[in-house]
Amino acid sequence: MNWWRYTRTASVSERRQRALREGEQLERRMAKSGRQRRPVTIEGRLIARSFWGKAWCENLESYRDYEYRLPRGRSYVRHGAVLDLDIGPGTLRAVVAGSRPDPYTVEIKIKPLASGAWARIKTRCAGEIGSLIELLEGRLSDRVMKLVTDRELGLFPKPGEIEMSCTCPDWATMCKHVAAVLYGTGARFDTQPELLFTLRNVDHGELIAEASHLEVPRSTRRRTIDAADLASVFGIELAAVPGKTAVSRKRPAGRPESPAVRSPNKTGRGRVTGRAKKKQRRAAER
């Protein structure tokens, strides 16, 4: 019985150094194909510090399916084991350093947020989020915060909506490498919170309710028609007078033009205009 033979657990310092070396090797390989490495770097003990990052991690820890599988993942992500993490629509792809010389590849697929659930979130948040900056910085009212982080009705995926795979030999559905990637995703939301909406296949801009999008009731609508449209529609001519708009009615077809038209003046007497005025001048000259 070789009970004295055992595999010594690597120290924290050794794990950090190994992850650093493997990260540099991975970066050189990726550079040859024109890709950029996006590692997850944790400063201090806190994995996530922002509203969205902490909410993501707290949601993971709220499910009993995960509670016994997450602690090793926290340790791995703190030690820099997530060498590369790419977050796309419905997919997390990552390379994670492990106990073997070659790092492991992790892929996590997440179902898109159901259209009905997204519609309900938009309806309940309408008018309560002032700008994209407020949204992405998590400066939301308590009501909106509870809504978007709700375990059943919010933005975060449920265990049944997550499919996980890792190239490591661990038989568990969620191995420590997968757990590290999930925590690393929360850390990434600290600096790029919009990726949460990308991951769930929804547009975060749709949560911003703008006043210009609100419909005005028909009873209060007023339509303005300019002079050209008014003339073409109703067949009238508009003459501009300082302070007023004079409207002359269209002469009906077939009626001869009147030689004299009298219009009331300020004194109430008739004022002679047109051809009659010319005839009066000629009579006076005679």
Which strand-content bin applies to the residues? 5-15%
Strands across the major sheet, in which order? 1-2-3-4
Average pLDDT rating: 77
Q: What structural category do the secondary elements indicate?
A: alpha+beta
Task: Throw out a few tags for this protein.
single chain, 286 residues, alpha+beta, 4-stranded antiparallel β-sheet, two-stranded antiparallel sheet, 8 strands, elongated
What does the model show?
The protein has 286 residues and is of the alpha+beta class. The chain is 36% helix and 14% strand. The chain has a domain at 12-113 and 155-202. The longest helix has 21 residues, at 12-32. Residues 210-250 and 258-264 have low confidence and may be disordered. Strand 1 and strand 2 form a beta hairpin.
Describe the secondary structure blueprint for this structure.
Elements: H1 12-32, H2 51-61, H3 71-78, E1 82-88, E2 91-96, E3 104-110, H4 115-125, H5 132-136, H6 142-148, E4 162-166, H7 176-191, H8 194-199, H9 227-234, E5 237-241, E6 244-248, E7 263-264, E8 270-271, H10 275-285
Antiparallel strand pairs: 1-2, 2-3, 3-4, 5-6, 7-8
Helix pairs in contact: 2-7, 3-7
